[in-house]
Amino acid sequence: MRTIDWNDGSNSIVMIDQTLLPMEYRVIECRTLASLCEAIRSLRVRGAPALGAAGAFGIALAATLSSADNMDELTRDLKVAAKTIKATRPTAVNLAWAVNRTIDAISDAYDPDGIRDIVLAEAKNIADEDILKNKKLGKYGAMLLEDGDTVMTHCNAGRMACVDWGTALGVIRSAVEAGKQIRVMACETRPLNQGGRITTWELMQDNIDVTLICDSMSGHVMRRGMVDKVIVGADRITGDAVFNKIGTYTLSVLAKEHEIPFYVAAPISTFDPDNWEENVTIEQRDANELRFFRDVQIAPAEVKVYNPAFDATPMENVTAVITEKGVFYPPFLLDEIIV
Ligand code: MRU
Would you state the pLDDT for residue 207? Predict the structure, then answer.
């Protein structure tokens, strides 16, 4: 199934609960806005494009649940829902982008039921388009990979981070589909181990060769010549920086030092041409993510913790950005890329 989808039968959002992977594969249903917001905050659904779909379906859910019988009241309800959804996670721009796009679609409606139909149709379009865009960017990116390459990746920018296929892992999937032998080195990605838990699981399901390393091994394997390319996804691309899972910046510096190409794979919906690094809020997460691993305590319970979920990689560390519109090299002029 898709990572996240709409269930027409029960008018609800269905998703794979990613907090349980790889030990358990469970599909959960969100029937209320509160349960959707909880799922986003706790990373049951995660990854920028998947968050976009979650946000859009959230507006559709709010429209179904609202009892408003006139357009003004329903529009007001949906705008409140939009604000609530956008506040769940601040860094991945796809969430706000998809919520805004769904809200903007309301202007084509003539009555409350029209609004309900239109926002659901728009949310479904956003989800369908996500797969098409990933397949397209995957094909462009696959041309950068050579038969026999070992590709390092960070966090999970695969089908679980999208509606399907993936961005960074979509490039790898497309290269494998084109007959290339690609090996993947997956960084564990502390503290929530999206790389160790999800990327490895996903690739093993597709029989793609994957080796897990912990984050502190990345410099060593690059120095030993064990990595040909690095490909990561992105949560937001401003004019001067790529925001992605914490640890991405470190990999970009290491890749530069070892003259290894550092690629970012992301759909245009991840671009934020109106902002610069200094304007972007980096989500700070709960201290217990570092003090505990699930229920096991791994640090003093009262220790002070700094836990930013993302970091910013300056554009000068990026070799190329892979999008559904093609591969872009420096200088990265966002206005020209997104037209
Ligand atoms: O905190 P997460 O798991 O939502 O962070 C996800 C990432 O950082 C991904 O690399 C990014 O969203 C790109 S997904 C195609």
Answer: 98
